[in-house]
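Case study 2.
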Amino acid sequence: MRESVKLLLLFLALSLVILVRVAVEENGYTTPDSSHYAGAGQALADTGQLVHINGGKTIVFTIWPLGYPLSIATVAKLTGISAFWSAKLVNLAWIGFSFLLIRKLFPKQAFWVALVFCMHSLLDIFSFTWSEGGFTVIMLWFAVALHHFLYRPEQRVEWAFQLLFAILSAFLYRYFGGFLLGVLSLFGVYFLLKRNWKEVGLLLGIAAGVLGFVTCYVWFVKQHSGYYGGTTRFYADEPFLLLLKNLLLTQVNEFAVIRHFNPLVLDYASWALFGFQLVVLGFVLWRVYQVPQVKGLLAPTLQDSVALIIGLVGLSYWLTMVIMRFLMKFDMFDFRLISPSTLLFLLALHGYLAAEKRAPILQRIQGPITMLYLLALAHGLYKKTLLQQVLSYF
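Prediction:
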């Protein structure tokens, strides 16, 4: 089967699972901030303003940036459907965009690389009316643009513009997205030390554009909320060990592919599926060990530059997010904070293994790992709830 067809079928399967689980879940995968996103999106679609009613109060949408509500409003305006379902279509559109990037980067193994979207925590990220899904895909776009800026010198001006738009889009989806400018500055220092003045000038231009836009946006937020960050921000007051414990539990859960896993909770299904995953991964490592000259095959080469930069962006996000959460008080460590880095790490790993020189390794492990992801996708369908919904009609 052609790679494009397999990728399309995977996208359709993901879309079906996400839409069905949203339809049968009692709260439609929404949280209190989801109502703000949807309310602001509906207000933009109806009146073109960020003022909306939430809980009987008139609210100006400034706590979070307007990128996600603007996307919701665009889909609602074009399709005429509610902001609730428009948000879900926006999430699916971001998955589709990421699949296009993956198809371009890894044309022979696009299906293998895209399988990572079947992981349970990523299914949740793209099911909820949250901005994290789009934000994560924008980070992938940034990583691709950064790679091409570095390795395609004849096209650097074009990719400089893409870097600019990627950083601005990330900031408009989450204020935290501004950290990408810090990632870019690391390469600015490199070019400065190498005395590559053209590249330094391009990166300074990107920085000026981002800082200028952020300054104007922060001023706008301050005018409407009285705060530069849209609301009062607090320093973390939780004990260090509590934060560390939740971070470790979150990382364990992010290692689980099929089902949410908390080692402190006795959930027989979770433990069984986690144990099954460990057995499969043990079998995979055993098969890798049997490959002749495996160390040489796993050694990095220039062809791995895309995967390595995707991994670098994921690591930069993880470090920045973890440090910020230890310093500032916002959501406790959970999959919502950490899954964006998980997606980039997995894409980097799958892309690394997709290199042509590693075909002897991939041929041995692709089957069992694909089974894990497809099992995760099937598990995410909430079959019991779906059956109850179907039987209720009879």
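Residues 3-386 form one domain.
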